[in-house]
Amino acid sequence: MKPQQEPPRRGRRCPICSRALTSPGARFCSDRCSNVDLGRWLNGDYAIPVRDDPDGETETES
Q: Which partner for 28 in 34, 38, 52, 56 could form a disulfide, CB atoms 3.0-4.6 Å apart?
């Protein structure tokens, strides 16, 4: 009986430049890509969209 083979794993890619990540715990392929991502956060390029309340009322603390 043959042991069951695992399906090939898709390699993780750097979210900035799409190069393959070499280390299993790495988030970016290089310090440059890490700094590019940090700069995007600091500039406000990453944001969660917010919908305004149609009534124009906001919650206030009592």
A: 34
Determine if residue 14 is labeled as part of a ligand binding site.
yes
Question: What is the pTM assigned to this prediction?
Answer: 0.59
- Each domain of the chain, given as residue ranges in start order, spans 11-46
pLDDT tens digits, one per residue of 21-45: 988 889 999 999 999 999 999 999 9
- 15 in a labelled binding site: no
Q: Is 27 annotated as a binding residue?
A: no
- Of residues 26, 27, 9, 29, the one with CA closest to residue 17: 29
Is residue 26 annotated as involved in ligand binding? no
CA-nearest of 15, 47, 10 to 30 is 15
